[in-house]
Design brief:
about 375 residues; alpha+beta; Aminoglycoside 3'-phosphotransferase, Chain: A, domain 2; six-stranded antiparallel β-sheet; three-stranded antiparallel β-sheet; 14 strands; about 15% strand
Protein backbone atom coordinates (compact mmCIF):
# COMPACT_ATOMS: atom_id res chain seq x y z
CA UNK A 1 0.00 0.00 0.00
CA UNK A 2 2.90 2.38 0.76
CA UNK A 3 4.36 1.72 -2.69
CA UNK A 4 1.00 2.34 -4.38
CA UNK A 5 0.56 5.56 -2.42
CA UNK A 6 4.05 6.75 -3.43
CA UNK A 7 3.37 5.98 -7.07
CA UNK A 8 0.07 7.86 -6.86
CA UNK A 9 1.85 10.94 -5.45
CA UNK A 10 4.51 10.65 -8.16
CA UNK A 11 1.82 10.52 -10.85
CA UNK A 12 0.21 13.70 -9.50
CA UNK A 13 3.58 15.46 -9.42
CA UNK A 14 4.37 14.33 -12.95
CA UNK A 15 1.03 15.50 -14.30
CA UNK A 16 1.58 19.07 -13.15
CA UNK A 17 5.29 19.19 -14.07
CA UNK A 18 4.33 18.38 -17.63
CA UNK A 19 2.39 21.65 -17.68
CA UNK A 20 5.50 23.68 -16.82
CA UNK A 21 7.19 23.87 -20.19
CA UNK A 22 10.69 25.30 -20.80
CA UNK A 23 9.06 28.33 -22.39
CA UNK A 24 6.95 28.94 -19.32
CA UNK A 25 10.02 28.65 -17.07
CA UNK A 26 11.90 31.20 -19.16
CA UNK A 27 8.94 33.58 -19.07
CA UNK A 28 8.70 33.21 -15.29
CA UNK A 29 12.41 33.91 -14.87
CA UNK A 30 12.14 37.09 -16.92
CA UNK A 31 9.00 38.20 -15.12
CA UNK A 32 10.49 37.60 -11.68
CA UNK A 33 13.37 39.84 -12.70
CA UNK A 34 11.33 42.64 -14.27
CA UNK A 35 8.24 42.75 -12.09
CA UNK A 36 9.26 42.01 -8.51
CA UNK A 37 7.03 43.70 -5.94
CA UNK A 38 9.15 44.66 -2.95
CA UNK A 39 7.37 43.86 0.36
CA UNK A 40 8.45 47.02 2.20
CA UNK A 41 7.41 49.52 -0.45
CA UNK A 42 4.65 47.73 -2.37
CA UNK A 43 6.19 49.30 -5.48
CA UNK A 44 7.18 47.55 -8.68
CA UNK A 45 10.96 47.37 -8.93
CA UNK A 46 13.74 45.39 -10.52
CA UNK A 47 15.46 42.24 -9.42
CA UNK A 48 18.97 42.62 -7.96
CA UNK A 49 20.11 39.84 -10.27
CA UNK A 50 20.29 39.40 -14.03
CA UNK A 51 17.69 37.29 -15.84
CA UNK A 52 20.19 34.57 -16.62
CA UNK A 53 21.05 34.11 -12.92
CA UNK A 54 17.52 33.17 -11.88
CA UNK A 55 17.22 29.39 -11.62
CA UNK A 56 13.84 27.83 -11.03
CA UNK A 57 13.78 24.38 -9.45
CA UNK A 58 13.31 21.53 -11.88
CA UNK A 59 10.56 19.70 -9.96
CA UNK A 60 7.30 20.97 -8.57
CA UNK A 61 5.33 19.06 -5.93
CA UNK A 62 1.57 19.03 -6.22
CA UNK A 63 -0.51 20.01 -3.21
CA UNK A 64 -3.64 21.75 -2.06
CA UNK A 65 -2.52 25.19 -0.98
CA UNK A 66 -4.12 28.26 0.53
CA UNK A 67 -7.77 27.64 0.02
CA UNK A 68 -8.74 24.00 -0.09
CA UNK A 69 -10.01 24.01 -3.68
CA UNK A 70 -7.05 25.54 -5.43
CA UNK A 71 -4.65 23.01 -6.98
CA UNK A 72 -1.16 24.35 -6.46
CA UNK A 73 2.34 23.55 -7.61
CA UNK A 74 5.25 23.83 -5.26
CA UNK A 75 8.87 24.29 -6.25
CA UNK A 76 12.02 25.97 -4.99
CA UNK A 77 13.94 28.80 -6.62
CA UNK A 78 17.58 29.64 -5.87
CA UNK A 79 19.05 33.01 -6.80
CA UNK A 80 22.89 33.01 -6.86
CA UNK A 81 25.20 36.01 -6.36
CA UNK A 82 24.71 36.06 -2.64
CA UNK A 83 20.93 36.01 -2.74
CA UNK A 84 18.98 33.74 -0.42
CA UNK A 85 16.77 30.86 -1.50
CA UNK A 86 13.12 31.53 -2.30
CA UNK A 87 10.01 29.45 -2.39
CA UNK A 88 8.03 29.58 -5.61
CA UNK A 89 4.41 28.53 -5.80
CA UNK A 90 2.05 28.39 -8.74
CA UNK A 91 -1.68 28.56 -8.17
CA UNK A 92 -3.20 28.15 -11.64
CA UNK A 93 -6.81 28.37 -10.47
CA UNK A 94 -6.44 31.71 -8.68
CA UNK A 95 -7.48 34.80 -10.61
CA UNK A 96 -5.30 37.88 -10.88
CA UNK A 97 -7.78 39.75 -8.67
CA UNK A 98 -7.57 37.07 -5.98
CA UNK A 99 -3.78 37.23 -6.07
CA UNK A 100 -3.86 40.99 -5.64
CA UNK A 101 -6.25 40.76 -2.69
CA UNK A 102 -4.14 38.06 -1.05
CA UNK A 103 -0.93 40.06 -1.37
CA UNK A 104 -2.43 43.29 -0.07
CA UNK A 105 -4.04 41.54 2.90
CA UNK A 106 -0.73 40.01 3.93
CA UNK A 107 1.14 43.31 3.58
CA UNK A 108 -1.54 45.10 5.60
CA UNK A 109 -1.43 42.49 8.36
CA UNK A 110 2.39 42.55 8.53
CA UNK A 111 2.36 46.32 8.97
CA UNK A 112 -0.19 46.05 11.80
CA UNK A 113 1.48 43.14 13.60
CA UNK A 114 5.26 43.16 13.07
CA UNK A 115 5.68 41.36 16.40
CA UNK A 116 3.96 38.28 14.96
CA UNK A 117 5.24 38.56 11.38
CA UNK A 118 8.60 36.88 12.06
CA UNK A 119 6.81 33.52 11.94
CA UNK A 120 5.44 34.21 8.46
CA UNK A 121 7.73 34.18 5.38
CA UNK A 122 7.49 37.52 3.56
CA UNK A 123 6.38 37.73 -0.04
CA UNK A 124 9.23 38.78 -2.31
CA UNK A 125 7.25 38.97 -5.53
CA UNK A 126 3.94 38.01 -6.99
CA UNK A 127 2.95 37.76 -10.62
CA UNK A 128 -0.82 37.89 -10.69
CA UNK A 129 -1.13 37.28 -14.43
CA UNK A 130 1.01 34.13 -14.08
CA UNK A 131 -0.68 32.94 -10.85
CA UNK A 132 2.81 32.86 -9.33
CA UNK A 133 4.08 33.89 -5.92
CA UNK A 134 7.67 34.08 -4.64
CA UNK A 135 8.41 33.95 -0.91
CA UNK A 136 11.43 33.91 1.32
CA UNK A 137 12.47 30.31 1.99
CA UNK A 138 12.59 29.22 5.62
CA UNK A 139 14.47 26.24 7.09
CA UNK A 140 12.62 23.38 8.69
CA UNK A 141 10.37 20.43 7.99
CA UNK A 142 6.61 20.12 8.43
CA UNK A 143 5.43 19.37 11.95
CA UNK A 144 3.56 16.40 10.49
CA UNK A 145 6.96 14.96 9.52
CA UNK A 146 8.89 16.02 12.62
CA UNK A 147 6.77 14.09 15.11
CA UNK A 148 7.60 10.79 13.42
CA UNK A 149 11.29 11.46 14.04
CA UNK A 150 10.89 11.76 17.80
CA UNK A 151 10.35 8.06 18.64
CA UNK A 152 12.11 7.32 21.97
CA UNK A 153 14.47 10.31 21.87
CA UNK A 154 13.23 12.18 24.91
CA UNK A 155 15.23 15.34 24.23
CA UNK A 156 13.54 15.71 20.84
CA UNK A 157 10.14 15.06 22.39
CA UNK A 158 10.73 17.81 24.96
CA UNK A 159 11.85 20.20 22.23
CA UNK A 160 8.81 19.40 20.10
CA UNK A 161 6.45 19.94 23.04
CA UNK A 162 8.09 23.32 23.71
CA UNK A 163 7.71 24.29 20.06
CA UNK A 164 4.03 23.28 20.01
CA UNK A 165 3.44 25.45 23.08
CA UNK A 166 5.02 28.36 21.21
CA UNK A 167 2.73 27.67 18.27
CA UNK A 168 -0.28 27.69 20.60
CA UNK A 169 0.75 31.02 22.12
CA UNK A 170 1.43 32.53 18.70
CA UNK A 171 -1.90 31.33 17.30
CA UNK A 172 -3.70 32.74 20.35
CA UNK A 173 -2.11 36.18 19.85
CA UNK A 174 -2.56 36.03 16.07
CA UNK A 175 -6.24 35.18 16.39
CA UNK A 176 -6.92 37.77 19.07
CA UNK A 177 -5.24 40.71 17.34
CA UNK A 178 -5.18 44.12 19.03
CA UNK A 179 -7.79 45.61 21.32
CA UNK A 180 -8.76 48.33 18.86
CA UNK A 181 -8.16 49.21 15.21
CA UNK A 182 -8.84 52.14 12.93
CA UNK A 183 -9.63 52.40 9.24
CA UNK A 184 -6.31 50.71 8.40
CA UNK A 185 -7.95 47.35 9.14
CA UNK A 186 -10.46 47.74 6.27
CA UNK A 187 -8.54 45.61 3.71
CA UNK A 188 -8.63 42.66 6.12
CA UNK A 189 -12.33 42.64 6.96
CA UNK A 190 -13.25 40.18 4.21
CA UNK A 191 -16.77 38.75 4.07
CA UNK A 192 -17.23 37.76 7.70
CA UNK A 193 -15.59 40.41 9.88
CA UNK A 194 -16.49 43.95 10.76
CA UNK A 195 -15.30 46.73 13.05
CA UNK A 196 -17.63 48.49 15.48
CA UNK A 197 -17.64 52.17 16.38
CA UNK A 198 -15.24 51.55 19.26
CA UNK A 199 -12.66 49.95 16.95
CA UNK A 200 -13.28 46.36 18.11
CA UNK A 201 -13.33 43.48 15.63
CA UNK A 202 -16.66 41.62 15.58
CA UNK A 203 -17.92 38.49 13.85
CA UNK A 204 -21.15 36.49 13.59
CA UNK A 205 -19.85 33.32 15.25
CA UNK A 206 -23.29 31.71 15.35
CA UNK A 207 -23.61 31.96 11.59
CA UNK A 208 -20.10 30.54 11.21
CA UNK A 209 -20.84 27.45 13.25
CA UNK A 210 -24.24 26.95 11.59
CA UNK A 211 -22.53 26.97 8.19
CA UNK A 212 -20.06 24.34 9.38
CA UNK A 213 -22.86 22.13 10.65
CA UNK A 214 -24.50 22.34 7.22
CA UNK A 215 -21.18 21.34 5.61
CA UNK A 216 -20.97 18.36 7.97
CA UNK A 217 -24.46 17.21 7.05
CA UNK A 218 -23.59 17.36 3.36
CA UNK A 219 -20.31 15.52 3.90
CA UNK A 220 -21.99 12.85 6.02
CA UNK A 221 -24.63 12.28 3.32
CA UNK A 222 -21.93 11.83 0.71
CA UNK A 223 -19.91 9.45 2.88
CA UNK A 224 -23.03 7.41 3.63
CA UNK A 225 -23.67 7.09 -0.11
CA UNK A 226 -20.06 5.94 -0.51
CA UNK A 227 -20.61 3.15 2.02
CA UNK A 228 -19.54 4.81 5.28
CA UNK A 229 -23.00 4.75 6.82
CA UNK A 230 -21.56 5.41 10.29
CA UNK A 231 -20.92 9.00 9.16
CA UNK A 232 -24.64 9.74 9.50
CA UNK A 233 -24.21 9.40 13.28
CA UNK A 234 -21.66 12.22 13.49
CA UNK A 235 -23.91 14.58 15.47
CA UNK A 236 -25.25 12.04 18.00
CA UNK A 237 -22.75 12.89 20.74
CA UNK A 238 -23.27 16.66 20.45
CA UNK A 239 -26.02 18.90 21.74
CA UNK A 240 -25.95 21.02 18.60
CA UNK A 241 -28.68 23.40 19.70
CA UNK A 242 -26.86 24.17 22.95
CA UNK A 243 -23.51 24.70 21.24
CA UNK A 244 -25.02 26.99 18.59
CA UNK A 245 -26.94 28.94 21.25
CA UNK A 246 -23.73 29.50 23.23
CA UNK A 247 -22.40 31.71 20.44
CA UNK A 248 -23.85 34.99 19.24
CA UNK A 249 -23.99 37.07 16.10
CA UNK A 250 -21.81 39.73 17.69
CA UNK A 251 -18.81 37.86 19.11
CA UNK A 252 -15.27 39.27 19.37
CA UNK A 253 -13.53 38.70 16.04
CA UNK A 254 -9.93 38.14 15.13
CA UNK A 255 -7.64 36.87 12.41
CA UNK A 256 -7.85 33.53 10.67
CA UNK A 257 -5.33 31.51 8.64
CA UNK A 258 -7.94 29.17 7.15
CA UNK A 259 -5.84 26.00 6.82
CA UNK A 260 -3.93 25.82 10.10
CA UNK A 261 -2.77 22.22 10.07
CA UNK A 262 0.60 20.60 10.96
CA UNK A 263 1.51 20.29 7.26
CA UNK A 264 1.55 24.09 7.13
CA UNK A 265 3.90 24.64 10.08
CA UNK A 266 7.63 24.20 9.52
CA UNK A 267 9.72 23.18 12.54
CA UNK A 268 13.39 24.14 12.89
CA UNK A 269 14.65 23.22 16.36
CA UNK A 270 12.41 25.13 18.75
CA UNK A 271 11.51 27.71 16.11
CA UNK A 272 8.63 27.51 13.64
CA UNK A 273 7.22 29.12 10.50
CA UNK A 274 3.57 29.22 9.42
CA UNK A 275 3.20 28.78 5.66
CA UNK A 276 0.52 28.53 2.95
CA UNK A 277 -0.97 32.00 3.27
CA UNK A 278 -3.01 32.86 0.19
CA UNK A 279 -6.32 34.61 0.68
CA UNK A 280 -5.49 35.24 4.32
CA UNK A 281 -5.08 36.58 6.90
CA UNK A 282 -8.50 38.12 7.17
CA UNK A 283 -10.81 39.13 9.98
CA UNK A 284 -13.12 36.26 10.89
CA UNK A 285 -13.75 33.80 13.72
CA UNK A 286 -10.34 32.56 14.92
CA UNK A 287 -11.48 29.47 16.85
CA UNK A 288 -11.63 27.09 13.82
CA UNK A 289 -7.88 27.53 13.25
CA UNK A 290 -7.17 26.22 16.74
CA UNK A 291 -9.79 23.46 16.43
CA UNK A 292 -8.31 22.11 13.19
CA UNK A 293 -4.75 22.25 14.50
CA UNK A 294 -5.68 20.51 17.76
CA UNK A 295 -7.68 17.83 15.97
CA UNK A 296 -4.80 17.10 13.61
CA UNK A 297 -2.42 16.74 16.55
CA UNK A 298 -4.48 14.09 18.26
CA UNK A 299 -5.64 12.19 15.16
CA UNK A 300 -2.41 12.22 13.14
CA UNK A 301 0.54 12.21 15.55
CA UNK A 302 1.76 8.75 16.66
CA UNK A 303 0.64 7.13 19.91
CA UNK A 304 0.63 9.06 23.19
CA UNK A 305 2.77 11.79 21.61
CA UNK A 306 -0.36 13.15 19.95
CA UNK A 307 -2.08 13.60 23.31
CA UNK A 308 1.06 15.14 24.85
CA UNK A 309 1.31 17.66 22.01
CA UNK A 310 -2.41 18.40 22.23
CA UNK A 311 -2.08 19.13 25.96
CA UNK A 312 0.84 21.49 25.30
CA UNK A 313 -1.05 23.28 22.57
CA UNK A 314 -4.27 23.73 24.55
CA UNK A 315 -2.39 24.87 27.66
CA UNK A 316 -0.84 27.67 25.62
CA UNK A 317 -3.83 28.52 23.44
CA UNK A 318 -6.56 28.45 26.09
CA UNK A 319 -4.31 29.43 29.01
CA UNK A 320 -6.64 28.67 31.94
CA UNK A 321 -8.93 26.55 29.81
CA UNK A 322 -12.46 27.23 28.62
CA UNK A 323 -15.04 24.43 28.47
CA UNK A 324 -17.23 26.55 26.21
CA UNK A 325 -14.47 26.79 23.59
CA UNK A 326 -13.41 23.15 24.01
CA UNK A 327 -16.88 21.88 23.13
CA UNK A 328 -16.98 24.05 20.03
CA UNK A 329 -13.44 22.99 19.08
CA UNK A 330 -14.46 19.33 19.37
CA UNK A 331 -17.46 19.97 17.10
CA UNK A 332 -15.44 21.96 14.55
CA UNK A 333 -12.68 19.34 14.56
CA UNK A 334 -15.20 16.56 13.93
CA UNK A 335 -16.73 18.53 11.05
CA UNK A 336 -13.26 19.10 9.59
CA UNK A 337 -12.54 15.35 9.64
CA UNK A 338 -15.83 14.60 7.93
CA UNK A 339 -15.27 17.22 5.24
CA UNK A 340 -11.68 16.16 4.57
CA UNK A 341 -12.79 12.53 4.31
CA UNK A 342 -15.55 13.51 1.90
CA UNK A 343 -13.07 15.48 -0.24
CA UNK A 344 -10.79 12.43 -0.41
CA UNK A 345 -13.68 10.24 -1.52
CA UNK A 346 -14.29 12.53 -4.51
CA UNK A 347 -10.77 12.19 -5.92
CA UNK A 348 -11.40 9.02 -7.90
CA UNK A 349 -11.14 5.28 -7.52
CA UNK A 350 -7.41 5.17 -6.72
CA UNK A 351 -7.66 7.84 -4.05
CA UNK A 352 -10.66 6.11 -2.44
CA UNK A 353 -8.81 2.79 -2.43
CA UNK A 354 -5.79 4.36 -0.72
CA UNK A 355 -7.77 6.23 1.92
CA UNK A 356 -10.71 3.87 2.53
CA UNK A 357 -9.38 2.19 5.67
CA UNK A 358 -8.05 5.37 7.26
CA UNK A 359 -11.24 7.22 6.36
CA UNK A 360 -13.39 4.60 8.05
CA UNK A 361 -11.19 4.66 11.16
CA UNK A 362 -11.31 8.46 11.40
CA UNK A 363 -15.07 8.64 10.89
CA UNK A 364 -15.77 5.89 13.42
CA UNK A 365 -13.57 7.59 15.96
CA UNK A 366 -15.15 11.00 15.40
CA UNK A 367 -18.58 9.46 15.87
CA UNK A 368 -17.70 7.53 19.02
CA UNK A 369 -15.50 9.92 21.01
CA UNK A 370 -14.12 13.43 21.18
CA UNK A 371 -11.53 14.13 18.50
CA UNK A 372 -9.67 16.01 21.24
CA UNK A 373 -9.38 12.84 23.35
CA UNK A 374 -6.12 10.93 23.79
CA UNK A 375 -4.79 9.32 20.63
CA UNK A 376 -4.57 5.57 21.04
CA UNK A 377 -2.80 4.73 17.80
CA UNK A 378 0.34 2.69 18.13
CA UNK A 379 3.55 4.65 17.85
Amino acid sequence: MTTIRSLYRLARDLSVNLQITPGRRQRWARSLTDRIVMPDTCQTGHSPTNPETVEIGKWFRWGLGGSGTHATLRGSETVPSGQTAFWLKWCPKLTAAEFDVSYRRMQCWRSLHPELADQVPPTIAYLADEQLILMEARPGRPLSTAWWEVADRSHLKDQLETTVMKIGAWLRDFGRGRDTYGSEITPLLGDHGRIDTAGHLRVDARHQIECRILQAEQAADQLARDGLSVASQWADRFDLDAIVASFHNDEPGGFMHGDMKPDNVLIDGDDFTVIDWWMTPSVSWPLPDAAIFATALTTQAPGPLGHALLTCFLDAYLQNGNEHNLQAMDLIGTIWLLCMTAVASRRGIVARMLTRKESEQLVRRAVSQSVLAANQKAA
